[in-house]
Amino acid sequence: MAVNGKGEITDRWLGFDGVEAWVASVEKARSDTRTIAAKKEAFAKEPNGALAECLANDAACVMDYKTAVKYFRTARDLDPSRAAYCSDQILSNMFYGSRDSVFTFDEVASEADLALAAPGATVDQIESLAAMMSSLAQSMEIPERAAPYLKAALDQDIGDAEPSPTRQGLMVEHALLVDHDAGKAVKLRKGMLPEDWQQDAGQLNSFAWWCFQNEINLDEAQKLAMQGVDLARDDEARASILDTAAEISAARGQLADAVGFAQRAADLAPDKDYYKEQLQKFTAAAETQ
Fold it and tell me: What distance in Å separates the CA atoms of residue 205 and residue 211, rounded to the nearest whole number?
């Protein structure tokens, strides 16, 4: 945030894209010290790309995603040299805005398709785009809509290079959402873990929770979660893994076990209301069953 001598906001922006980008943002803020209100008035009279970008960033800072996208699109039209940056910001704001139902998946996809077709898009950019669209599709419970983006990313030739963590994650999601091959997805997901993951309570819990979220490999996930309970470093960590075990047990239809694990978690963390609520949830489900 940049302010003048009266403490009035003159510019603000989100994120850190490296030293050079930071310095450029600061210099831009120093070059025009009018208040945001004054800049809005100036833009209404004589629009230009720099003002549009400034007002877009200001809107993004207060999570006014619709206004941010509007200004970034205007900035992109007025200053083609900033098109790549503005397009990236448009997608980012649309992604976060979609979580609040400001944008539909189709609206985000329309912008994502433009990014995919943009000349000069790098492998990293396409992989990041695919990861974003997959996350969005799954959160909206339309995972099948992620398929074209996953395919586009994995079709990129990386030669003999080691797949990035992002690409490895996309391979797992492709196995789940496109190939519908749970066994392949589990194998790929395990391949992303460190060599000693089965001796690490956190890694065991993370993998077990991933299995629960995707409703696959639940029998092994249950065993690994209990292994994590034994390895947990303290009661807080132990309670967290017991909660995972409770969710997996419920998903497997073993509600009595779920209640037992939830009770143990609540006992280990008596100050956490979450575990009490979980216990109530599983107890009610068990009584209904």
Answer: 10
pLDDT the model gives residue 181: 97
State the Cα–Cα distance between residues 265 and 250, nearest whole angstrom. 15
Domains of the chain: 197-289 (1.25.40.10)
Tokens of 108: 């985000």
Scan for tokens 């930071």, then name that residue. 22
Q: Is 249 helix (H, G, I), strand (E, B) or coil?
A: helix
Q: What are phi and psi of 9, to 5 degrees?
A: -70, 130
Instruction: Name, in order, each residue with C-beta under 8 angstroms of 224's C-beta and a sequence gap of 6 or more.
Output: 198, 204, 207, 208
d(CA 71, CA 88): 13
CB atoms within 10 A of CB 45: 6
Secondary structure of residue 10 in the 3-state scheme: strand
CA-based R_g, the chain, Å: 24
Find tokens 């790309």 and name the residue.
49
pLDDT of residue 17: 87
Instruction: List average pLDDT for each run of 10 residues in the chain, which is 289 residues long.
Output: 95 93 94 96 96 97 97 96 93 95 96 92 94 95 95 94 94 95 97 96 98 96 97 96 98 97 97 97 94
What is the signed CA dihedral for 109, 113, 115, 117, rounded to 10 degrees?
180
Euclidean distance between CA atoms 205 and 245, whole angstroms: 9
| Cα angle for residues 173, 177, 179 (degrees, 5° grid) | 100
Residues 11, 54 contacting (CB under 8 angstroms): yes
> What is the pairing mode between strands 2-3 and 9-11?
antiparallel
For the beta carbon of residue 142, count every other beta carbon within 10 angstroms: 11
